[in-house]
Amino acid sequence: MSEKILFVDDEPAVLDGYRRLLHRDFQVDTAVGAGEGLAAIGENRGDPYRVVVSDIRMPEMNGAQFLSRVRTVCPDTVRMALTGHADIETAMDAVNEGAIFRFLTKPCEKEVLAKALNAGIVQYRLVVAERELLEKTLSGTIHVLTEVLSLVNPAAFSRAVRVRGYVQHVASKLHLEAGWRFEAAAMMSQLGCVTLDTDTIEAVYAGGKLSPEEQARFDAHPSVASRLLSGIPRLESVARMIAQQDSIAPSKQTRVGESADVVAMGAQILRVAIAYDRLRNRGNSHEEALGLLRLRPDQLERSIVDALVGLESEQLQIEVRSCRIPDLECGMILQEDVRTETGLLLVAKGQTITFPLLVRIRNFWQRKPISASVLVHVPCASVPDPKVKAQSQRG
Q: Which residues pair with 82 in a beta bridge?
């Protein structure tokens, strides 16, 4: 009875008939007209309807238009059309606009209708299972790639983590859909830096000048990342965002609030976030960085820049302390670079310690080429109360 079905029709008597016919086998909700149907779907977004069955001939908004809206609001929900006017044109509109799963005609026998609904429920389960599997696969792929980047080029990884934080903030403030694509683009934005040496990356981030050859190699890193990602299903748009992160400028297609192209919007958000990070990394305060970004209206979308205004107020409260290498834990944030005695950057400041990084730092420490302690940020939630700790040790 947890598999919810919604019937939409402009005749209440017809809806009562569906409810009486199917209530023993399905959890049936009904809505009179498209407006009431959309309201019901909105109220059940947290636990969406598995199947929506709509009459085609309805006033104000016909079934084809309604099912098209359902497809936009709840793409996983299986859509069916039911009508007593089964002409070819109506059927084609319903299939093309609503991408319906079944087209049934009135009067529809209980056995036929029940069989169609059961098939729709099975289809819903398959769609959801496939989406969840794909999302987990994508998440795992991105995680592995970022871990590799953190080991190969810690400075680039550190920037990617910071940029992701800025992008998450912007997407939240602007209430943008497809947020996961923007965050994935942020984490992967520096992936192409795996082809560059650490000295080049550090020089760029510090504002140093590169030779023409080094600059050309650095400028190519977005296209390198894009090529690496373009072959992964569902990351094609992310790859295009990254490829355009240094070249796209505001246009009518990237204005917030309009039906903006997701790739253009994502590329512009990346451009703003990276420009902000560059300014902060070179010593500018939060206010100074925003002021400088606002001086570039021909290059940076103002609404995206303004979305960064409250960024600093949302930073986590943290305790800063010196920590011995054996006492480091996953989740701590480095407050200083970890370098070998020869000056090689092992892990960059600002990087969150993950398990692979923890293993790497401890391996270097056991061979004695790095300091025995490092300055770290510890989120307050994970800092034990000294009195509680002392009591537990005495106990």
A: 55, 104
Task: Note whether 31 and 107 are same-domain residues.
Answer: yes
* Judgement on whether residues 112 and 201 belong to the same structural domain of the protein: no
Q: Are 351 and 334 in contact (CB under 8 A)?
A: yes
Domain-located, residue 103 = yes
Q: What is the total count of domains within the chain?
A: 3
76 to 45, 129, 163: CA distances (angstroms): 11, 10, 31
Instruction: Let me know if residue 105 belongs to a domain.
Output: yes
Range of the domain at 352: 316-395
Mean pLDDT comparison of 104-118, 191-205, 330-344, highest-scoring range: 104-118
What's the farthest any 2 CA atoms get from each other in the chain?
83
pLDDT at 98 over 80: no
Residues 6+ apart with CB under 8 A from 287: none
Is 142 within a domain? no
Q: Which tokens belong to 374?
A: 């490092």
Tell me whether residue 377 is exposed, middle or buried, using C-beta atoms within 10 angstroms of its C-beta: 0 to 12, 13 to 18, 19 or more.
Answer: middle
Q: Show the DSSP H helices in 75-178 as ranges.
A: 88-98, 110-152, 154-173
Nearest to 106 by CA among 245, 223, 202, 11: 11
Distances (CA, A) of 172 to 138, 179, 188: 21, 8, 19
Whole-structure pTM over 0.85, yes or no? no
pLDDT in tens, 309-338: 888 754 544 567 889 999 998 888 888 888
Residue where a domain stops, chosen among 291, 314, 337: 314
DSSP code at position 179 = H
Residue-wise pLDDT for 229-252, tens only, equals: 988 878 888 999 999 988 656 555
Whether 173 has a pLDDT exceeding 70, the answer reads yes
Per the domain annotation, does 147 fall within a domain?
no
Q: Looking at residue 153, what DSSP letter applies? A: -
Nearest to 142 by CA among 229, 67, 46, 216: 229
Per-residue CA distances from 275 to 162, 163, 237, 278 (Å): 12, 10, 21, 5
**Are 359 and 285 in a shared domain?**
no
pLDDT in tens, 134-171: 777 777 888 888 878 877 887 788 888 889 989 999 99
Q: Which amino acid is at 152?
A: V
